Task: structure prediction
Amino acid sequence: MIFGSLSTTLTFVRRSAPIHTVSPEQTFEEGKALGARLAAEFPRGVVVLLIGPLGAGKTVLAKGIARGLGIEEPVASPTYTIISEYRADSRLLHHVDLYRIEGREQLENLGLDDIIAGTGYVLVEWGEKIEGWLAAPAAGPHFRVTLALASDGGRDITVEEVAA
Result:
């Protein structure tokens, strides 16, 4: 079982310096670079938790990550479908949006255990809702990408690799 007991202890392996973007296009390009890096470093896939307030650019960054993974089809926010699946050659991407999900029971009914335990890339918008339940080592290492609204209207993005 991937969703273990609630734990707030995280072990960070790597943490990037904050990246400042001033436009959606720049946020998309940073996502694209991150997607290419993930594809190179984790060819079988990895979980990426996107964390930030409403309007911080999580979906824009997710679109860029998908493009960096080689996904050419348009990527839309799965706010109402909850989970969308995309393929590029042998790569599989699950894009999950937990905005409307409340509580452990709703999370368990989504089938995220199977998705996270499988191979492929998993992008989770509102990832803070499952971060405490990702039990290592079953889920393996994952990334925590935090987007914050900057005072100049831009975005500050921090990427952290969390140990299994």
Observations:
- The domain at 12-162 is CATH 3.40.50.300 (Rossmann fold).
- Residues 24 and 160 are 21 Å apart (CA to CA).
- The chain has one domain: 12-162.
